[in-house]
Amino acid sequence: MSNQRVKIKPTPWDIREEGYQKEHNLYFESNFTLANGYMGARGLLEEGFPEEMETYPGLYIAGVYDHYNDPYVELVNCPDFYHGEITVGAYPLVMREDNTSDYTRTLCMKDGTLTREFVWTAPDGSKTRIFWQRFFSMDNVHLACQRFWAQPLDHSHPIVLKTGFSADVFNRRQQDYPPLKTIIPNHHLAFLSAGVSPSSGAWLSAQTKTRKTELAFCSHVKAVQGGELRQYTEKHGVVQEFTFACAPGEHVGMDKVVSVYTSRDGRAPVPEALADVGETY
Length: 281
Hints:
By secondary structure, the chain is mainly beta. Helices cover about 5% and strands about 45% of the residues.
């Protein structure tokens, strides 16, 4: 991390980052962490990172520890359900300081929401406004929510959003931090199963390798202003992919509800997670 001063704006209820500051990403990931006592996630960029950016991904569930292939017992990094790969026309959205403007990231301490907004300029010069918002429920600690909006400002390119779950996640060896330059992954999770339902639902089941704690994740997605949904399983998880036909100035988007259970909760986690978001299989 550089020694330059971090630009952050305090308000009565908000902690706000103004302007995209790639060199301070680790700082902001920590400061924009959300949690509800059952699970929590670092403030990662939903759409991913440039290869050169330092990042420490982390989504954790209380009590889920493991020590597979490692002398340390540690909190397991769990599947990230907030990620969302975006493609505008032929161009994958990759944020850089020279193609991102009007950028803000705001943690509202009153509402418990984390919101990001920015305008992204594609290689062809077209501009798209992007909006993300997430929170963890305090009423039902097994639930999390996410909202995505996109607004083409001067083009009609189709917009594709890919989200879902993957069990191909890992912890970084504790003795290798710092620095983060050399990443030695430790995969604590074994993929068990995944599936989709006709009613816009998807689920993933995985298990810690040493302690055999089973984890279940289920999501229900809904398109805002249309959007064609395609769902499919892959090697380590499941994908929910929206394709939006767009017009300049029109908003398109998605709302997502996620339910998370583990075998530590005393019930079969997959049926419980499915029931929480109204899904059956």
